[in-house]
Amino acid sequence: MTENSHLSSNLRRQPKQQRGKERVEKILDAAAVVFDQMGYEAATTHLIAAKAGTAIGSLYQFFPDKAAIFHAMELRHIERVQVLWAQLNTPEIIALPLRQMVHRLVTAVAKLFEHPVSRVVFVQFYMKREVFQSIDDSMTQEAIDFTSSLLQPRNPNLSEAQRNLLAEVCVHSSNALILSALRNPDQQHRQQLVQQIEDLLVSYLEPYVGDSRLSHVMKVMKCPHCRSQQLSKNGYRRGKQCYLCKECGKQFVAN
Fold this sequence. Notes:
Blueprint: H1 3-8, H2 18-42, H3 45-52, H4 56-62, H5 66-88, H6 91-94, H7 98-112, H8 116-127, H9 137-151, H10 160-182, H11 187-209, E1 231-237, E2 240-245, E3 251-253
Antiparallel strand pairs: 1-2, 2-3
Helix pairs in contact: 2-3, 2-5, 2-8, 5-7, 7-11, 9-10, 10-11
Keywords: DNA-binding
DNA-binding region: 44-63
InterPro entries: Homeodomain-like_sf (IPR009057), HTH-type_TetR-like_transc_reg (IPR050109), HTH_TetR (IPR001647), TetR_C_15 (IPR041669)
């Protein structure tokens, strides 16, 4: 499901023209700023409309109240996260040296939270959880499962319980530092905290999935048709992992 299709299911009226779609986007971006500056309780639809530069009547055409606006922001954030996970869960990234892999992951997550909607949704989850309709602790568990799936190929000898424990520590420690960074007004200090996330994860994971433990089976996968390394996982066939080449569009099964 695309971001727009998921978001549309939450709107009172579906914008049919590009102008209407752009207005919805402006309202959500403006709401993120208002929620960020004033908090959920103090925010009003009138303040959001004013920040978006639109009439309150235009806002009500799409959203009945601020709860609906916030819910749309949740959905927007969820789909961005899902797209991010799909982009990061590739053989190319998993086969990188540990420091480079972690850097790619942390950089991508930091970029995600540069967007005001994702930043506000993440912070509010720890401050005003009762207003959420779609995001709960299951999303954190999904992040843990995703992280665990990245660790498995790097050290197949780890048990599932070990991988899940490592992933849980990585996710919870990273979330705590991300939250601290996002709430800090000092841009330089925020960047320092993000760098510490990278250093922390590398130091923690090195004994378990470091470069010395990277199995020979994790040689960089290449498309047998065009030799590209730009691959994505594409389900299983007869118990074997299938891949889709992003360059030539052909599928193949791993040997």
